[in-house]
Structures are given as C-alpha cells and as structure tokens.
Amino acid sequence: MSGHPLSLAINGRERLLTDRLITFEPAAPQRTETAAVVGLGYVGLPTACALHDATTRVIGFDISEERLREIKAGEVDLPEQERSALASALAGGGIELTSDPAALAGADAVIVCVPTPVDAARVPDLAALRAACRTAVEHARRDQVIVLTSTTYVGTTRELLVEPLRERGLRVGEDVHVAFSPERIDPGNLDHVQRRTPRVVGGATQRCAQRAAEVVRRMTDQVYLVSSPEAAELTKLYENIFRAVNLALANEIADACAELELDPIEVTLAAGTKPYGFLGSFPGPGVGGHCIPCDPHYLLWQLGRRGLSSPLIEEAMRAIDRRPGRVVQRVVELLGEAGVDPAEARVLVAGVSYKAGVRDLRESPALPILAGLRRLGVDVRYHDPLLPEIELPDGSPMTSEPEPHGRDWDVTVIHTAHPGADYSWARDCPRVLDATYQFDAVPHRRVV
Known about the structure:
- It comes from Saccharopolyspora hordei.
- Pfam families: UDPG_MGDP_dh (PF00984), UDPG_MGDP_dh_C (PF03720), UDPG_MGDP_dh_N (PF03721).
- The protein is α/β, with parallel strands linked by helices.
- It has two domains: 13-226, NAD(P)-binding Rossmann-like Domain (Rossmann fold, 3-Layer(aba) Sandwich), CATH 3.40.50; 228-448, Rossmann fold.
- It is 34% helix and 14% strand.
- The strands form three sheets. Strands 1-9-8-7-6-5-2-3-4 form a nine-stranded mixed beta sheet, sandwiched between helices.
- The longest helix is centred in the middle third of the chain and has 31 residues, at 229-259.
C-alpha cells in the first residue's frame, strides 16, 4: 500500500488493515492510444481533459449539440487553467467532439460519465444511464475497455454492460474488459485536482480490473483495486451517504449552537483539531449539487425494493430536504422582528448556485428558498454574477439583479458567496441572514 493517508476515523487502527487494500502497480508504462468519453458534463468534460495528457486522441461524445457548441465556444464551468488547456486541445485536434455514437468503435477505452439524477419523488432517473450504456454496448469492439463512472445502484455495471455485452457474443474478461470506477471530481475546488485524487476500480474479472486500472491511472497517481464492480459501486454511495449524514449533523449542531449562543464554525474548527475520531463539516442553507442530494436515494431505492429500510440515512435525507424551509422560516422571523409583513417585504438572495465558484444550479437549496418565499407573497429576487438567468421548479423564470443596493431590501440572504465577487453593498442592508455562517463582511449579520 502507498503512503496515501486514509480518511478513516478509527484511531489509527487502519495500519492493521493495510493488506486489505490493493494498490494497482502497472507492470510497465502503458499508453492508451484513443479514449472516448460518453457524456461531457461536469464529470465527463474534466475527464476528457485529464485523458488528453496521456492519450494520443480523445473522443468526446455527447448527444446534445448545444453542449458541444458550448464546449467549442469555451462556455464551460472549468477553472481558467483547464479552460485554456481545453481550448488548446480542441484547436490542436487532441480532443475531438462528436454526436455520432459510431465514433466510439474507434476507441481503445470508453469511459461513461453521464448524470444519474433522481426525479421529484426521489426515485432514481436511469434514462440517461441506460441510454449511454446501451450506446457503449452497441458500438463495443474486441479488446476494448469500458469503464462506468456514473454514481448508481449496486449491480448496474453487470446489468447494463456485462450482460448486454455477453448477449452480443463478446466474452467479458477476454474479448472486452468492463469495470466500475466512481468519479471523484470536486467542481471548483483546486485542492482536489484529479491527478492527486485516488480512484477505486472494480472489474468484472481480475483481468478487467487490471485493464481498467491502466486507463484510470492516466488520470490519477493512485488507483486502488476492489474485488468487484459491486464493491466499487457501493464505495461511491457510501462516500456520499457519509457526507449527507455528516452535513445533516452539522446543520443540527448549528441549530444547537444558535440556542446556546455559540458559533458553530468555531466549535467545528475546535473539534477538528483532534487528530483522530472526528471528520467535521460546516453548516449551510441546505445541500445541493449532482451528488449528495441524489446519490443516497439510489441505495434507499434499491433497499426499499427488497423490503429493507435504513432509518439513519432516511432521516438524514429528510433533514436535508427540510433545511431550505428553515432558512425561509428565519427570514420570516427577521421580518417579524422588524414589524414587516412578508406580503409587503422585499428580500434578496445573494448567490444561488449550490456551491461557491461554480455555475451549477442542480439541487441548489436556493431554488426551494426562492419558491418558499414567493409562496408567502414576498417580493423575492436574487443576485448571482455566475447565473444571470434561472428557472424555479414551477418553471418560472428569474433574472439576476445586476447591481443590488443594500437599502432596497428588507432582508438579504447570503446563500452562496462567490470568490472574487463584490458583496460590499450588503453592509447597507438593515437585515442580513447569513446562511453560510461564514460571511463576516457584515457586522450585524444574523445566522440561520
């Protein structure tokens, strides 16, 4: 095992388990000549960029012509350095964009990176995943490596790739090699670049795992092998379920801190000085993005079909769903303290993306917060320099306030504070509700 530290709160006893974790060690430097990436969203596009540095040719496949136009125009949510590298790769032909699935047959490796959301009832929406896997199977050829990276339920790799390939007459582990390697991309966080973020690979056979690890190793310095695709699939779900439970706990501790007149950030940082047994998170207005609000429901859905429950995970997800309502409640409380009727109030939500520094609106807590305030009759607007236009869950469009003035609003809710953005205007707002718990620019701020 390498010297990479494990994120385990088990008091150092991980040293007794090092033989259980298998580090992939390539026998000799390998080079995949051509790699294809299926799906060019928040995971697929960075994956294509990472592969460009280690392959002769990268094929970026997406069914959306609009998405391909955005990428060609540089209208992508990538750090500046990666955006420049992408532009150079496109100009030099190192990355080729296409909507023609037949191009996949020309790749030595195919990496599937499509979204796996849930619907309004929190049931997994498998449409994009099934379509992408079906496309990969239809165009698979002998000696190809197919790696699924999309977070999904346990057994997906065998159901959507291994079995259909066998039905096509391709022997998995001999003619074609299949594995699951969950993505670990942290959008907007330059501390967690792909090269320094370890990956896990679970192959349908031992040979599949080795071949897939050779491909994944192009994107990271460290690859760990697990016994099966199923083990790798549950690994990813466990990672994000842990985050969900931890974030629900962080918000609950923040509420306790409010009651006891303590600062939850101070308490969390102080607890974090313990070098073992604690892995903390910061509270906020809710949980957004394509992972944490969605992924745990894949396991809950799968267990539910078997008549099983997971009470801790279920309650954590309910708590996450309730959190935006708590923000709305606090806005109403602040208005009440000022004697302002919600139906006559003007409220501004500052920042609506789910995470600072990114333009991703998926599952953002800002959406139910805006909708909840509207239902109360509040004249609610938003300001976000990264998202000039958004759409609420009911389809209502909204446009960002370009230059807000603090005195124009009864309450300003700090939902997402983007780095480098100017929020000095918020000091002039009489009431500022800091849902990030870290917006120190306004001395009179209140927290959720």
